[in-house]
Amino acid sequence: MPPVSRRMVLVNSAALMAISSLSACGFRPRGSADIPFATLFLGVSEGSGLGNELRRNLRSSAKVQLVNDLKAAEARLDILSETREKEVLSVNRDGRAREYTLRYRINFRVHDGKGREFIPATDITLKRDITFNEDARLAKESEEALLYRDMQTDMVQQLLRRLAAIQK
Question: Do 88 and 128 touch, CB atoms closer than 8 A?
Fold first, then answer.
């Protein structure tokens, strides 16, 4: 067996200290959302990217059954609106856009369908800034699409956390 070098002992000690400091600060991996309903109806169109990702996350990580019948649902999540906006953030000396702000906004509500609102109509807005270069138009369009997908994933996670925070 080869002798253990002093450097290897220091590296292992540093790794052990880093791992133990993470647990001491309260860090833990994100677990599944504990939705307080046994059944949930999603009021979002089937072709919606947000709806598809929300369904996938609920089926895989939450202890809730998605139902297609409103009468069988304990609660209903309605996506009232979903918008994507692009606004010029800055321009160059020629007056052409150099940076944009991308916004992804949804309006949703959670209710039982019988008049009880768990979460009244609420907006969630996410935004990202993106630079623009006329010479790399295709690359920047791909980057914009990637940022919108990233915001959609963040939006689903925020929705799941809000659903989990509902007090029945």
Answer: no
Lowest mean pLDDT among 1-15, 80-94, 134-148: 1-15
Strand order in the sheet with 39-43: 65-66, 39-43, 75-91, 97-111, 117-131
Taking the model in full, what pTM does it have?
0.76
Contacts of 147 (CB under 8 A, 6+ apart): 102, 128, 130
Task: Compute the CA torsion angle 33, 39, 45, 47 (nearest 10 deg).
Answer: 60
Quick check: 102 and 85 in contact, CB under 8 A? yes
pLDDT tens for 19-75 read 666 655 655 445 556 889 999 999 887 788 999 999 999 988 768 999 998 888 999
pLDDT for the residue numbered 114:
87
Closest residue by Cα to residue 132 from 94, 106, 83, 82 = 94
Q: In whole angstroms, what is the distance from residue 158 CA to residue 151 CA?
A: 10
Q: Is 84 left (phi over 0), alpha (psi -120 to 50) or beta?
A: beta
Distance CA 38, CA 64 (A): 5
Note whether 50 and 156 are within 8 A (CB). Answer: yes
